[in-house]
Amino acid sequence: MSNLETVPQETLCAAAPAAGPVVERLTGHEVALGGPRAMTVTRTLPSRGRRMVGAWCFIDDYGPEVAAMRVPPHPHTGLQTVTWLVSGEVLHRDSVGSLQEVRPGQLNLMTAGRGISHAEESAEALLHGVQLWVALPDGDRHVAPHFEHHADLPVLTEGDARVTVIMGSLGGATSPARAYTPLLGAEVTISGSAVLPLEPGFEHAALLLSGEVEVAGTRLDRGTLLYLGSGRPDLALGGQGRLLLLGGEPFEEEIVMWWNFIGRSHDEIAAFRQKWAEGEDFGTVHGAGGAPLPAPALPTTRLKPRGRVR
Question: Domain 18-248 - what CATH class?
Answer without folding.
Answer: mainly beta
